[in-house]
Amino acid sequence: MEELFRSYWWLVFPLSWGVFGVFQSWLAYRARHDALDVLRSYAEAGREPPPALVARLNAR
């Protein structure tokens, strides 16, 4: 097992970058989902949403 780690120690870096990328994607998804929930509550109340909220959804 030690020899395996010595031979492939460099794989820690690409794997950690991949995990970090997945985590960033999940955080972006949650932010969009929360913004849509707020937008939905404005629509249900019949009010106009703030322009900053709409701009946040159109950012990507």
Attribute tags:
mainly alpha; 3 helices; single chain
Folded structure, characterized:
Helix 2 (12-45) runs antiparallel to helix 3. The chain has 60 residues and is mostly helical. The protein has helices at 2-7, 12-45, 51-57. It is rod-shaped and about 65 Å long.
Quick overview of this protein structure:
This protein is mostly helical.
Helices and strands, with pairings:
Layout: H1 2-7, H2 12-45, H3 51-57
Helix pairs in contact: 2-3
Strand pairing plus helix content: what structural class?
Answer: mainly alpha
Give the SSE order as H and E letters: HHH
Average pLDDT: 92
**Which spans of ≥5 residues are poorly predicted at pLDDT below 50?**
none
Q: What share of the residues does DSSP label as strand, in percent?
A: under 5%
Give the N-to-C terminal Cα separation.
44 Å
Record field, number of beta strands: 0
- Percent of residues in helices: over 70%
The radius of gyration over CA amounts to 20 Å
Q: Tell me the domain tally.
A: 1
